[in-house]
Write a structure and sequence with these properties.
Helix content is 38%, strand content 14%. By secondary structure, it is an alpha/beta fold. It has two domains: 179 residues, Rossmann fold (3-Layer(aba) Sandwich); 72 residues. Helix 4 crosses helix 5 and helix 5 crosses helix 6.
Length: 259
Amino acid sequence: MIEIIRHHSKPLEPKPTGVEPVLKSLDGIRAVVFDIYGTLMISAAGDISLVQENALQTAMEAAGVSDPNAATRYHELIAEHQSRSDKEFPEVEIRDVWRDLIGQTEDVEAIAVKYEVHANPVWPMPNCGEVIEALRERGLKLGIVSNAQFYTRHLFPAFLGGELEELGFDPELMVFSNEELEGKPSRALYQKLATNLKAQGIQPSETLYVGNDMKKDIWPAGLEGFQTALFAGDQRSLRLHPEFDATPDWVITDLAQLL
């Protein structure tokens, strides 16, 4: 799957937003936690959750699925799986959706990855790897709260040369929507992060959460007491949602500004 991602990916550049940065010091911060799509990774669709709107039948065909109704049925199945959940913001396990679509006999994971790389191409944000390394070297705990699927973890060895844990991310501080079957902006994801941080003696107020979406990232993280940084570095993924009463502590347009 890592080779599939590498083979079908090509560099993307962020699109400027014109937003002015608001920068602060990392003094007093003991942990930095990131969103992935639109923050650590450029997402051509803007976010993993927008793939349903942006994917075309050509992506399905590129994955080796020739049924002309497959793309429509795929989106219907996602909605069906979500409807079975009692959670406010249900997430699906995408491999289950693919099994319902194409059957158990196919290599579901490979097909899902081939579809994803065509439907939602991604590439690391400028300075992504360098910033992760620098924060780790400063002794800061690193974590993730992100909407994701099983292939999201493979982006890091594909592009940055190491698994998340090898890059310095703490396994106890990584919360993925597909593993919780619940997506952002659910506060439950941030509450789980807060609980696991406190188990390591770190308070939410000592943690900076970095994300590109005011509704899914800044607002719920702020409600749980985290310091927040709005990543406004790519027009594709910046979501301001002025209807939400939330103000980030930082605004950054390049990950390197965290340093």
